Amino acid sequence: MNSASKPSTQPPAAAALAGLKVVEMGQLIAGPFCGKTLGEFGADVVKIEAPVSGDPLRNWRLLQDGTSVWWQVQSRNKRSVAIDLRAAEGQELARRLIAEADVLIENFRPGTLEGWGLGWDELREINPGLVMLRISGYGQTGPYRDLPGFGAIGEAMGGLRHLTGEPGRVPMRVGVSIGDTLAALHGTIGVLLALYHRKAHGGPGQVIDVALHEAVFNVMESLLPEYSAFGAVREAAGSALPGIAPSNAYRCADGYVLVAGNGDSIFRRLMEVVERPDLATAPDLQSNAGRVARVDELDAAIGAWTLPRTIDEVLRLLGAARVPAGRVYTAKDIHEDPHYRARDMILRQTTRDGHEVDVPGIVPKLSGTPGSVRSSAPRLGDDTDAVLREAGLTSEQISLLRSKGAIA
């Protein structure tokens, strides 16, 4: 499957989550990203998809032979089982799989699983040790629980969209579905915490309730305490880092660079490089508070120095002075960057249709039990028969279910 040549892309001798059984009912981004992460570290992830249509992510953005290349990342290391969860026979199959699972991942609207007879009260009866991750727009409780919610809405309610973009302009998205991914990462943490509690303390299974907006709100730094203490409403600031100076994007002759000169000694070195020793030694600029008061002047001085120079020249001079700086990477820049490749962050996968495609590597990097890509993303229902046989069904039972349309 995986044609990458570096040893770290091969299955490790002992995966961190080897033996962990996961049933993934989620679709699109939030739930499946959690399943992807667990699968990369050895979990056996069985993904339940609707027959015929499957996960809508299969058809999102750019397609290769009818399948999204995004799918190749999001669903690697998973097995696809096509089950109609709206049919009674499909619901019984799901119970059968969940009864043997350690973890269930779902990101339907609250109440959906209960309507199928697959709510927590029913599932913990058949599997007391089950860890159930539930990701939704607003959580399983509260006055908004029944409202539909996507990642974009979570980003808005969590406070992120208000801060993204230029002052006075329409709020901007960050360019990727960050709300969904933040929820998935919080969900992954919750799963691992619950599994640790079950193993180390003999505790029962439990539900992890992750709301999209809460996952976003959790990374909003000083947003709320600043309002609570001072009545200050943080506003959009473009490319600058409000209250920290100097830290901004500066135009060069051929694009932009990001410069973070906000450490005291770093600031002094930066001012020497940009040929402003007067600012480097100014008494009121030796601390962040003083620099914030004169941030416009500092940004202008740095910008005047970068403007006639190329990005490469700016980065070379700032690097020599040990001032943190970097270019604004495009996909092309990432693909060609030697550091990405040296750290195995670009892997070449072979899809099940025979295509070669470069995909992101695995994070985090564990020294003893690193993650791996063991199998490429499945076609819809690729593993239905194999998984159901493992669950104890006979070939005749599987054929009957297929004839009824309960599986595909």
How would you summarize what this structure contains?
It is built from 19 helices and 13 strands. With 408 residues, the protein is α/β, with parallel strands linked by helices.
Q: What does this 3D model show about the protein?
A:
The protein is of the alpha/beta class and 408 residues long. The protein is built from 19 helices and 13 strands. The strands form four sheets. Strands 5-2-1-6-7-8 form a six-stranded parallel β-sheet, with helices on both faces. Strands 9-10-11 form a three-stranded antiparallel β-sheet, with helices on one face. The longest helix has 24 residues, at 178-201. The protein is elongated.
Rg for CA atoms: 25 Å
Structural class: alpha/beta
Write down how many β-strands occur, each being a DSSP E stretch of 2 or more residues. 13
Largest beta-sheet characterization: 6 strands, parallel
CATH class of the largest domain: Alpha Beta
What's the layout of helices and strands?
Layout (H helix, E strand, L loop, with lengths): L20 E4 L5 H11 L3 E6 L13 E2 L2 E2 H6 L3 E5 L5 H12 L3 E4 L5 H4 L4 H7 L4 E6 L14 H7 L2 H4 L14 H24 L4 E6 H6 L5 H8 L16 E6 L2 E6 L3 H10 L3 H5 L6 H6 L1 H12 L4 H10 L4 E3 L3 H6 L1 H5 L3 E5 L5 E5 L23 H7 L4 H10 L4
Parallel strand pairs: 1-2, 1-6, 2-5, 6-7, 7-8
Antiparallel strand pairs: 3-4, 9-10, 10-11, 12-13
Helix pairs in contact: 1-8, 6-8
